[in-house]
Amino acid sequence: MNEVISYVRRPELMTFTMPLVALLGAMFGFITGNIFGSPWIGFVLGAAVGAALAFVFSKIVKMKSKQKTLATAVVFGVVGLVFGGLGGLFGGFLVGISMGWFANWVGSGRYRAGVPIYYTPGQVLWHNAFLFICAFVFFFLIAPLLPVVWLSFNAENFFTFTPEMLSFKAEGYSLKHYRDFLGTDEWMVPLKNSLIIAPIATLISVSLGTLAAIGLSQSHVPGRQAMMAVLISPMIVPLIISATGMFFFYAPLGNWLELQLGLNQAFVGYVKVILAHAVLGIPFVIITVTATLVGFDKSLTRAAANMGANPVTTFFKVQMPLILPGVISGGLFAFITSFDEVVVVLFVGSARQQTLPWQMYTGLREQISPTILAAATILVSVSILLLLTVELLRRRSERLRGMSPG
Amino acid sequence: MRQKMRALMLVAPLLIFVVVTFIVPILSMLFRSVENEIVPNTIPGTVVALSEWDGSTGQPPHEDVYRNLYIDLFKAEEAKQHTRLGTRLNYEQTGVSSLFRTTGRSLDDIGELWQDPLEAIDPNFEEGSFWFEMMSGTGGEGFLEQRRELMAAMSDENMSGDVGFVPSAEIIEMLPWTARAYTDFALWAAIRDGDTVAEEDPWESVYGALGMDLTNPDTVSAINSYNGAGASALQAAAANIDQLPDFGFREAFTQEDEDWGNAEVWATIKLYSPSMTPGYFLNSVDMSLTPDGVKMKPDNQQIYTTLFTRTLVMALIITGSCILLGYPVAWLLANLPMRTASILMILVLLPFWTSLLVRTSAWKVLLQQQGVINEILVWLGFVDDADRLILMNNATGTVIAMTHILLPFMILPLYSVMKTIPPSYQRAAKSLGATNWTAFWRVYFPQSVPGIGAGSILVFILAIGYYITPEIVGGTDGVFISNRIAYHISSSLNWGLAAALGSILLVVVLGLYWCYDKIVGIDNVKLGG
Amino acid sequence: MQLIKTLTASTAMLVVATGAAYADDHMASDMTLVSWGGAYQNSQIKAYAEPYMEMNPGVSITWDESSNEAVAKLRAMNEANNVTWDLVDVVAADAMRLCDEGLAMEIDPDEVLADAPDGTSAEDDFGDLLVSDCFIPQIVYSTTFGYREDMVPAGTPAPTDICALFDTETYPGMRSLEKRPINNMEWALLCDGVAKDEVYSVLETEEGQQRALDKLATIKDSVIWWSAGADTPQLLADGEVFMGSTYNGRLFSAIVEQDQPIAMLWDAQVFDLDGWIIPAGLPEDRLNRVLDFVKFATDTQRLADQAKYISYGPARFSSAPLVGKHAELGIDMAPHMPTDPENAKNTFLYNYEFWADYRDDIDAKFQAWLAQ
Predict the structure, then answer these.
(1) Going by C-beta distance under 8 Å and a sequence separation of 6 or more, which residues neighbour residue B324?
(2) What sections of B124-273 are H helices per DSSP?
C-alpha cells in the first residue's frame, strides 16, 4: 500500500453520487418498509431520501463531513423516535450514521483514496467490496462478544434479554453478577487458582520449549522430524483422550509424591495440574520459537563467540533479545491454553485446584447464571489491556532490531 | 559432533518431559482398547474349563465349568469384582450384568445347600479351627503361591504377606476343589481382612467345594484310607453322601437364574475370555464379534461410522469456511501498514482470548429461536414469527460457532506466511501485462499455499477433537465422535470402547499430520509472530 | 549447561515457594464433599455444612462439584489408589452401581445414622428409601414437566396430562427432553397406551423398545435434547420451548424464586432419590470424621431444614412434619414437594434393576435413533 496517492477527484453528482446514495437509501427503505409491511413504498421513499441527502451534502460546503454525518444521524434518529419509539431512535441513528458516512464517502471521492489512480471503476468496486468483506469478517469475530458484555448487566438470573433490558429501563440492569464474581469465594478462589497455575505452567513450557527449539534449530540434529512430532503431539491428540490418559498417569504420581516424598496434598494437586497444562502449552512455544529462529542470523552468535562471549552470555545478550517476540508470543499461547483449559483440569485436578474455566463449566451446567458473563467481560477487558501491552512491547522490540515500524 | 550433542542436550529435557508425562500416558490409555484381562483374571478357572466346551452344539457346558465358576465367582464376590465383570460382558450381551449381580447375592445360599447337611453330619465342620487343622500341612507352598497370584490378579490388590497357613500336599491331592476354595479363603482372611485364619469360619464355598470332591468315587475311597487330621469327619461325610444335595452346580446355578443354562451366554463368555480382544474396535466401526464370527450390527444400532463420517465432513466444512473468511482478512492484515494491522490484529486475538465456554454460550444467545438473530429478523419482518430459523441444535449451529472459535487459528498462520511474500512479485507480474486476477492467482496465491496448509491442518485437527461446543449448540445432528468418547468415559464407563474410538480418531489425525508434513513440512507452521 | 541449571533451579524455587505458600492451607481436618453445585449444593451448605462447621470450628469443608462424573472419577481414583473424596452425593442408580463395584462403603444404617427424635430406628425412619447397602438417602426428587403458561393456545385448557407432550396439535411448540433413554422411553410407552405396571416388561422386548422410539419419533422434530440440569429452565425462560422435563427443584426455583411464567405438570412424575455414599477404603481418621458429619447431616432436623432452601422432599418420614417455610420468601414449602398428595396423584416408579441391565443396550439404540 505504498502507492497511496492523495489526489482525489470529486465524482459527478447526478450520474454517480446521487444514484449510489439513493440505492443505499432504497435498501434501508426496503428494510424499514418491511417492518411496517410495505417494503416497496419504503424502497421508493428511501431512494428519494438518499438522493436528496446526496444533493444536500454536495451543496453544503462549509460543514465538516463529520458534522454532516452527525446531523444526518440526529435527524434520522428523531424520525425513528417518532415512528418506532426507543428502538426506532436507535435504528434511525444507525441508519443515519451509515447513510451520512456513505454519502460523504462517495460524494467526496474518498472511496478512491486507497487505490492507485490508474484503477478502472471495476477494480475500484472490487477493492471496496473486498474491504467490506473484511469488515464483515471482523464484525463476525467481534459481534458475539457484544451480547456477552450486554447480558452481564442483566438483573435476572437467565441468559435472556428481558423486555426491561431492551427498553433500556434501569430496573432491567444491575451489577449483581459483578458483585457475585468479585465478592464470593466461589469465583475468587478459582480465579486465584487460575492465576497460580497458568503462569507457572507457562514458565515451564516457555523455558523448556525455548531450549528445545534452539536445539532443534541447529543444523543436522539427528531424528529432528521424529522429535518435532513428539513435541507437537499434545496439540494433535484430541483433548478428551489426553485428559483420561493423563489422569491415569498423574493419580499414581500424586500418590508417590504424597506418600514417598511426604508432600502436602494440596501442593501435589497444583503440581499435577501445572505439569499437565505445561505439556499442553509446549507445542505452541515450539512452533513460534522455531519460526522466529528460522529467520535468525547465525553469524551474530559466531560474532559474539569471536569476541569472547561464552555460550550463556551469547544466549542472553544476543540470541534472547532477538527471539524474544517469538518467545513471548509462544508464551501467550501457552498461557491462554492453560487459562482457558477445562477438559484436562476436570480430570487431573481436584476441587482445591478448581480453575476459572472449570467453575464456568459447572456454572453453565448446573445453574445458568450471567455471573459467567460478568467474569468473561472482566477477562475480555483484561485481555484488551494485555494485547495492547504486547503490541507496545512488539514495537519496542522492533526498534531494538533496528526496523522501523511501518 | 560436539554441536550435535549440545543440540541434543538442549532438546533432551523437554523430550523426556513430554514422553513421560504425555506420550506414555496416552499410549497406556489407548491400550485399553484391546485389553480384556478382566475376564481371564476374574474367572480364571472357568475360562480354562470353558476352552474345551464346544459352543456350536447349543448345549450348556459341562458340570466342571460350573464348579470352577462357583469357586471363581465366590472370591470375586468377596472382592466385589463380579459386577465389574458383569458390566464388561453386558457390553456384548444385554442381561449379563444382572445375571452376575443377582447370582453374586445368592452364592452364599448355594454354598449353604452343602454346608447345612455337612454340619449336620459332623458338627466339627462348624469350627474354623477344625478346618484349619485339617487343611494345614506341608508341601503346599507352591499351590499357595499359585492361588495368591490368581487372587492378586483378580482383586487388583497387593496380596503379598504372611498367610499363617500352608495347605497340606496330601489334602491338595485328595480334595482338590476344597483345597482351592479354602486356600482362597485363607488368603483373603489373612491378608485382606488381617484376621487369623484358624479363628475364622470358612466361606460357604469351601463346603460347596467339599461337596464337589465327594461326588468323585476316587476321592471317597481315598478318604476312607486317609488318617490325617479331620479324618473321622471326612469319613462320616463320605459315608453319608446321600444326605448331600443330589444335584450338581449346573443345576444350582440354573435354579438361581435360568440364563446360566443358556448356551448363548456361555458362548459370549468364551468369546471374550482371551486377555486381548478386537471387540472394542469392531464395536467402534458398528460391527460386533459374535459366536458366529464378525457381523455388522443391526441397522438400528449403527452409529459410529455415521459419527466418524460426520465428524470428518463437518471438520472439512469448518476448515473450508475458515479459509473463505480468513484468507481475505489475513491478506488485509499482511498488506496494511504495521500500525493499523496491529490494531486490527487485536480484533482477531480478542475472541481468541475469550473463554471458549463464554463464546459458545454467546452463540447460544445469538442463534436460538428466540435469540438475537431471529429477533432482529422477525422485527425487520423478513422472517415470520411462527417459523423462525432453526440455527442451532443442529449442524448449522456447530458449524457457525466452531468457525468463529477456530477462525483465529486460520488467520494467524496465514498472516505469518503472507507477511513473507514480497509484493514486488505481484507488481512485476502486472507490469508484464497480467491482469489483477492472473497476478493474484498465478503469482500470489501459490506462495500463500503453505499458510493455507498450516491453518487448515491446525483448524481441522482442533475441530475433530472438539466436544464442548458441539455438545452445547450441536443438538443431535451436530455432535461429533468426541462427544461419544466423552460420553463413554464419563457416563457409560465403557472405557475400552472410548479408547478404541479415540485410537481410530488419533490414527486419522496422525495420518493427516503425516500427509501435511510430507506436502508442506511441519516447520512451516507458524502462529502469529 | 549453566543455563539449564539456572532455569531449572529458578523454576524449582518458584514451585517450592508456591508450595510453601499453600502448605499451611491444608488443615488436618479437611473434608472434600462432592455434590452437584448450584442451588442444590447451596441448600446442603446452608442446612448441614454451615451449622456443622459452627459446632466444629476445626473442620473445614471443600466442595467439589463433580457429582455428574462421580462414578467415572471414583472408579478412576480407585484404580489409581488415590481416593481424594470423603463423601459423595449421587443419585440412587449411581449409588447402586458404585456399591456393586465395591467403590462405595457398605453401611449399617442403625449404627451410622441418627435415630428419629421419637426413637424410631434410622432403618425404619428411612424405610424403603434405603435402596442400596451403601446409600444414605437425603432427598426425594422427581423428574417432571414445566410448561410456559403464556404459550398455551387461547381457549385451550392448560395441560394436566403427561401425554400433552406428544400432542403437538393442541399444544404447539418445542419440547425439551433429556438426551438419554431413561424416563423418555417410559413416558412414550405410557402415552402409547401401555399400562403403568407393564411398562418395563414391554420395554424388555425389542418390539417394545422400537415402539417407544416410534412414539418419540412423532415429536422428534420438535424436541431440543438437554444434557445439563440447568438447560430446561433456561429454555423455558427464553420461551424456546413450550414444555420440558427437568428436576422439580429447578422448576420451583424458576417459578417461585425467579418469577417466570412457568407452571408445573406433575402428572407421571418419576420419583428418584439422591443421597450420600462414602467411598470405600477411606483411612480410619478420615472415615471417622465423615461418619460424624453424616450422622449430623442426615438427622431429622437437618433434612427438614434443607427443604427450606429447595423443594425436594426429605428422605426421612420423621422430617416430613417439620418441613416449614421457604427461608427467604416465607412461603409454605409443603405444596411444592413432589411427595405432596396433591402433586403425587399419578407417579411413576423408576426401575433401577431394569436400567442397570438394559442401559447400554437401549442407550446404543437411542443414540443411533437420535443420529438418524
Answers:
(1) none
(2) 128-135, 141-155, 169-174, 176-187, 204-214, 217-224, 231-239, 249-256, 263-271
Contact B436 A1 (CB under 8 A): no
Distance CA B527, CA A48 (A): 50
Per-residue model confidence as pLDDT tens digits over C99-144: 888 899 999 999 999 999 999 999 999 988 998 899 999 999 999 9
Q: Select the residue from C82, C86, C246 to test the A interface by mutation, using most A Cβ atoms within 10 A.
A: C82
The correct CATH number of C142-273+345-371 out of 3.40.190.120, 3.30.390.10, 3.40.190.10, 1.20.1250.20 is: 3.40.190.10
Please indicate if any CB of chain A lies within 8 Å of the CB of B231. Answer: no
Which architecture, in CATH terms, is A184-401? Orthogonal Bundle (1.10)
Query: Which residues in chain C (31-70) have CB-CB distances under 8 A to chain A?
Result: 32, 34, 36-41, 62-66, 68-69
Question: pLDDT band at A404, cuts 50/70/90?
Answer: very low
| Residues of chain A with C-beta less than 8 angstroms from the C-beta of C233 | 158, 368
Task: Closest CB to B328: pick one of A134, A387, A405.
Answer: A134
Indicate the class that CATH gives domain C27-140+274-331. Answer: alpha beta
- Distance, in Å, from the CA atom of C106 to the CA atom of C99, rounded to the nearest integer, reads 7
The pLDDT value recorded for residue A226 is 83
B371 contacts in C (CB within 8 Å)?
238
pLDDT of residue A325: 75
In chain C, CATH 3.40.190.10 sits at 27-140+274-331, 142-273+345-371
Tell me if B358 and A391 make a contact (CB, 8 A cut-off): no
Chain A: list its partners (3+ Cβ pairs within 8 Å): B, C
What lies within 8 Å, CB to CB, of A71 at 6+ separation is: A63, A100
Please give the grid coordinates belonging to residue A314: 551469547
In the block, cell 428466540 appears at: B370
Task: Check if the beta carbon of residue C251 is closer than 8 Å to that of residue C262.
Answer: yes
Q: pLDDT of B22-53, one tens digit each?
A: 999 999 889 999 999 999 999 999 999 999 99
Distance CA C253, CA B243 (A): 66
Q: Who among C2, C22, C37 is closest to A270 (CB)?
A: C22
Q: What is the pLDDT of residues B349-397, one digit of tens each?
A: 888 878 888 888 889 889 988 888 998 888 888 888 888 888 888 899 9
pLDDT digits (tens, 9 = 90+) for B91-140: 888 888 889 988 998 999 999 999 999 999 999 999 999 999 999 999 99
Domain residues for the domain of B450 are 304-524
